[in-house]
Structures are given as C-alpha cells and as structure tokens.
Design goal:
190 residues; mainly alpha; Arc Repressor Mutant, subunit A; 0% strand; elongated
Length: 190
C-alpha cells in the first residue's frame, strides 16, 4: 500500500513566501535598505516569523540568494564550442532568474552580497574552468577573466540597462562575447 502524497506543510509555504518577498525586496532595495519588517509585510506575515525561520537578515539574505548556476558540462563539448555554450547559458539564466540580477546589485554595494558572489564563483565557476583550460593551474585566473566578461555584460544589459547592450539580440551577444570567453578558457596563456 502506497502512502498518499501529503500536501506541503504550512511552514514550507510560509518559508517560500518569505524567500520570494526577500528576493524581491533585496532586488528592489539592496541589502542595506531592505528590512525584515518590509520583507514580512510583503510576505503578509509577522516579522517574528521571518526571525523564527531565518534568525537574522544576513541568514535570510544567504538563503534568498542561494543560486545554482546549473552550468553545462563543458568538458564533454568540442573545445571550439565552449565559449558560445557558456555565454548562451548565462544569457538564459540572467533572462530567467531575477535572483541573479539582485545578487549582482547587492554584490556590488554590500560586503555580504560580495561574499555570496565570491562563494558562487569559487564553488561553481572555478570548477567548470578546470575541466577545459589547457593548464589546470591557470583555471582560477581564467575563471576570473570569464566572470569579468559575463558579469560585465550582465551589469550593462540587466542592471544598468544600457540601451546598446539591451538592444543586442541574444545571437549578437553570443557572437561578440563567445570568442573572448573561448580564448580565456582554451587558448594558450600569453
């Protein structure tokens, strides 16, 4: 006899509502100006519930900014396609996930946000570059160069919304950025 599927617990729904409200508030106000009280109001709950589930603003921010980049396995691709696949992947992620935009805004203005960005970089980007660069000892430097291009495009296209960056089609962005990313990842060091 199989056990019937249970409905999500009320605490799970409350926690999800808090996280949604926190992501939106951090994106709109940044880390410094976002308050527990405003996040609770947005989630239609008492501020004590936010504290109950997350303890403090920093812990809430860490939970709200949990990002899994879902990077494609670059090592299994033909080397000449790595740059285009990576740029396309990040465009898809930025266009489909407001948390990434919020993280970029907060990471540029707040130490807690910057630390989250550094952790994501170390845990996810660095590991991917190791599998494709010709000299594994250079992987961290190459990952930093890749991040500079990807984050630079994200800043101009999704945060600052500079018209020329926004007006470019996905294909144009890939055509311009992919060769640079490709070089950073697979070319011999200068």
């Amino acid at each position: 006899m199989t056990k019937p599927a249970t409905a999500p617990r009320r605490s799970d729904a409350t926690k999800a509502a808090i996280l949604r409200a926190a992501r939106e508030r951090f994106a709109a106000d940044g880390y410094e100006r976002a308050t527990i009280r405003a996040i609770a109001r947005d989630a239609n709950i008492d501020p004590s519930m936010v504290m109950r589930y997350f303890g403090n603003k920093e812990a809430l921010f860490v939970a709200a900014s949990a990002i899994e980049l879902r990077l494609p396995p670059l090592g299994s691709l033909p080397a000449k396609h790595v740059g285009a696949v990576l740029v396309g992947h990040f465009l898809d992620r930025w266009e489909g996930d407001d948390v990434l935009t919020a993280m970029l805004r907060v990471g540029a203005t707040n130490e807690a946000g910057a630390e989250r960005m550094r952790a994501i970089f170390a845990e996810q980007i660095g590991a991917v570059t190791t599998g494709v660069c010709p000299v594994p000892a250079e992987a961290d430097h190459r990952a930093a160069l890749v991040a500079s291009q990807i984050l630079g495009m994200a800043l101009t296209r999704y945060v600052l919304r500079l018209a020329p960056a926004v007006e470019m089609s996905r294909e144009e962005v890939i055509a311009w950025l992919a060769p640079t990313i490709q070089r950073y990842l697979t070319a011999e060091a200068p």
